[in-house]
Design a protein that fits this description.
With 563 residues, this protein is mostly helical. It is built from 27 helices and no strands. The radius of gyration is 42 Å and the shape is globular.
């Protein structure tokens, strides 16, 4: 039936190649202008050739040599295909792509390539339109946000002038974006800018979309408590009730915290009793913990014991926060027996396990008192118990080793931090700068200060105090002048502690005129001298034998005590 399989397949290959070569003329690649179509055709051509060659090999194994594949079949004549239509010249076509009529008469390559290109082009146009629409919407949202922020800024500036306060109540101030106003309020609350926060809150209440929210009131009351504004916190609490907000134990706890932070313990305990008698507002462990912390802040341990007893009567068990607060306060007060007994009581509780805060409070207590070995033992015990240290832990270790002049151990801690990629904070830099300053290594101290600034960590008052103290001990007056020039070109908020350090440094070096200039600087910055300021200046004048100035300053101290 098949006298010569190999020759039949060989002729089939040659005929197929002839068809492909003739069809290649149908593909008007120049007119389509797409190199990708040309590549697709060549890929098809080579694929077809390889496929047919493999078919020839599979069917004709063992036949004549491979050279016979190139012989033509003399007895049969391949059917000739009709000649492909001659494509129109490029200038006759209506555009870059051929018309639909010419595409339909073209071969398989022309029609498929044109359809594929048209689909890709449509998708590309659709994607571009979608991107343009999204970009336009983002731009409009940004513009609305900027406009709303500008409106808030303008309205807040108006409040500074009484003559135009009424303009704030116009229609424009009532149509601000909710998100913008709430973000502005949150930023001020977080920064403890209580005056500006209250102005934004009043602006919030004037908006057409405003609805009273107890969560916003609670955040404001907590902020006012931190800023020592208990009267305003109480006024907001009353406004919250008047506006019909839900008053729960969180609201009462926020007000208790405001009273406690300001040392108004009578009002705080009175409000605590009121909570006990108000259904749904009973105090919980967080209420007691906050009040205990306020009492411990002034070392009122008697009130703390009464609160712990009250908790036991109410059936409220201390939690980890309560125990950590007690351990930290006992450690700072040097009451190590109470601290250790509290820690043991905490360990005996099944649902109250120590954490990294417990660890930090314990090692800080022993480290600050110079008990380095005990501190190291506690550190190892906490680690073996599964408590992992954090950056605050290493800052405490660095500070303790630095004050104990254990510089080798201090270096080991820094190497450990570098090995395990603990990023330094402003506290870390302050601790290390102060340690090198105490050691008299001004070169290393200045290097760390430059490194701190290069890493965009902003120096604070503690940093500058360490520099000034070190320069004062070394008698480097010019270096202190450099610190003052840095302050002039920065926005560091200076406090009374820095000015007292500056006065002490100048007094040590006998620079009495510069010391008097510090008082003028304090007056310009609105910082009033305290007892430490005057006592430091008295020591400096006494060392220099200027008794007249000593008498004047002593009188100033007496007048300050009377006021």
């Amino acid at each position: 039936m098949y006298p010569n399989k190999r020759e039949d397949v060989d002729h089939l290959i040659l005929d197929s190649l002839s068809v492909l070569i003739q069809s290649s003329r149908w593909l008007d690649l120049q007119r389509i202008g797409d190199k990708k179509a040309e590549g697709n055709f060549l890929h098809l051509f080579y694929g077809f050739f390889i496929h047919m060659a493999s078919l020839s090999t599979a069917q004709c194994l063992g036949s004549t040599s491979i050279s016979s594949a190139y012989r033509r079949r003399p007895e049969t004549k391949a059917k000739s295909l009709p000649a492909p239509p001659t494509p129109k010249p490029a200038e006759e076509s209506s555009g870059v792509f051929p018309s639909s009529s010419s595409s339909s008469t073209a071969g398989f390559g022309n029609a498929d390539a044109t359809n594929a290109l048209t689909l890709v082009e449509k998708n590309r146009i659709k994607i571009n339109k979608e991107k343009e629409r999204e970009a336009r919407e983002r731009k409009e949202e940004v513009n609305r946000k900027i406009a709303s922020k500008k409106a808030i800024s303008v309205i807040l500036r108006r409040e500074a002038t009484k003559a135009v306060i009424e303009k704030k109540k116009g229609t424009n101030s009532k149509k601000l974006l909710p998100r913008t106003v709430l973000e502005a309020l949150h930023e001020r609350i977080k920064a403890l800018r209580w005056e500006s926060a209250l102005k934004v809150f009043e602006l919030l209440r004037e908006q057409l979309w405003y609805r009273p929210n107890s969560g916003i009131y609670i955040k404001l009351i907590v902020m006012l408590g931190k800023c020592k504004q208990p009267e305003r916190a109480h006024a907001l609490f009353q406004n919250m009730i008047d506006e019909g907000c839900i008053v729960n134990h969180e609201s009462y706890t926020a007000l208790v915290s405001a009273y406690g932070r300001s040392g108004l313990f009578d009002q705080a305990f009175s409000l605590l009793n009121r909570m006990k008698n108000t259904p749904g507002c009973e105090p919980d462990v967080y209420t007691y913990s906050i009040l205990i912390k306020s009492c411990l802040h002034v070392f009122d341990f008697d009130r703390v014991q009464s609160l712990l007893l009250d908790m036991a009567i109410q059936g409220i068990k201390p939690n980890t926060i309560t125990y950590n607060t007690l351990i930290d306060a006992y450690g700072k007060a040097g009451r190590f027996e109470e601290m250790e007994s509290t820690l043991m009581e905490m360990l005996n509780q099944q649902d109250c396990q120590p954490d990294v805060w417990t660890m930090n409070s314990t090692i800080r207590a022993f480290g600050s008192s110079g008990q380095i070995e005990t501190m190291e033992k506690c550190y190892e015990k906490f680690k073996s118990a599964g408590v992992n240290p954090n950056i605050k832990t290493f800052n405490i270790l660095l500070d303790s080793y630095g004050k104990a002049k254990s510089y080798e151990k201090m270096g080991a801690v820094m190497e450990y931090m570098q090995k395990y990629y603990y990023s330094w904070t402003v506290v870390t830099y302050n601790v290390v700068i102060d340690a090198f300053g105490r050691a008299g290594d001004l070169k290393q101290m200045e290097y760390l200060f430059r490194l701190m600034r290069s890493e965009r960590i902003k120096p604070n008052c503690v940093t500058l105090c360490s520099l000034v103290r070190a320069y004062g001990r070394a008698g480097a007056v010019d270096k202190i002048g450099g610190v003052l020039r840095f302050i002039e070109n920065s926005d560091v908020m200076l406090d009374i502690v820095f000015f007292n350090c500056l006065i002490d440094a100048y007094g040590r070096m006998g620079c009495l005129s510069e010391m008097r200039e510090v008082l003028e600087m304090m007056e310009r910055r609105g910082c009033k001298p305290d007892k430490i300021t005057y006592s430091t200046m008295i020591k400096a004048y006494s060392r220099s034998g200027i008794t007249s100035r000593v008498k004047e300053l002593q009188d100033a101290v007496i007048r300050k005590e009377d006021t």
